[in-house]
What we know:
The chain is 43% helix and 18% strand.
Amino acid sequence: MTAAPREGRVGSSQALGRASQRTLREINLSLVFAEITRAANPPSRADVALATGLTKATVSSLVKSLIDAGLVAELPLATGTGAGRPATPLTLAAGRVAAIGLEINVDFVGLRAVDIAGNTLADLVEPVNLREREPLPVLTSLMQRAYDLVCHLMADGVTVVGAAIALPGLTDHPRGPLRLAPNLGWRDIDVPETLAAALDMIVAGDDDAVMALCRRLFVDDIVADNEANLAARVETGHQPGTSFIYVSGEVGIGAAIVVDGQVFTGLHGWAGEIGHVVVNQTGPRCGCGSLGCLETYAGKQAMLRLAGLDETAGVAGLLQALADGQPLAQQAIDQAATALGLAVADCLNLVDVDQVVLGGDFAPLTDALRPKLESQLTGRVLASRWLGGHTIVRAASGDAYPALTGGALVGLDPVLADPGLLVARAGL
Length: 428
């Protein structure tokens, strides 16, 4: 089955126009789909009718359209002891509708396809040193892999509806440009334009529909965002409605501010650059040009260097050195935790949240970082005494490379919010 190219992403003005033109059927379609999506247990058509106030006949018609569009699936009949026909539970369809998350970081590139049921359909992460590499060759290599992935998904009958790319730097929301990625040495990169040039350079097949879809996904509709913002989306899925600061540790350090389950990106999309909070005015020079930024004390390279480990040792090597009782490894952790505490405390004094979620390379180091980190927060966060004496510090979920999953979730957002986009395109 060949997936038709998707409609353009609904931006703010487009969404407003579409909202005013939506038919009663489209509104009811969204109601039914939302009920199936958020139900704690797979609901039947009768359950959906009861929850939405729609008639059973209307719900049945709408459910059929959702099933035909690949958004909803029927589970095996529920058995019961009562009289009457057993109810058929409804759930989000697996393997039918998906989006793609992409990521460029300092030491890897990656792609991940995730369906609306939350299943990973394809996953590729390639370690590679991208420092001082030119953007176009890097993005061309990524687009070749993205094109091949779209071909594979379409051959499997998957409709690909969106994509987002995670970048390690200051990125305008929602489509760029990438203003600055200090650890890559990239400045003022027009993301859609560069991706379009990259697609022009790849080895493509003869199927024009595939390339047309790729241009819609990765150029016309692409969402570009900071890596930490997209990674935080995974955490909001695990704990909806919560508020926290997500701190992502890689070579660089990023953060996302989440309030009531929504990522706060700031006026331009630049919020969360915690890695460049100054923790020592006379400290080492950072890749951004400033002195004493958090990254120079708590970034992965900084920790490994102080621990006397080669960069290739990674976090696993640092954890092993800690387990072996190596003093330099403990010193590196203590320095990182103290610096992290200084920076995070400043953030918590500005943003009223009571949780710190450590992601990326910080996640497996959480137990080691926690004592000195919490000590700094307790002493420096003004509201600490009203938070039971301490701020909750926890590791992020076990999702490896969460920005890839978060990017796919962002790509799915328009269809999840308005299933009529896909139903109408399919002519159902």
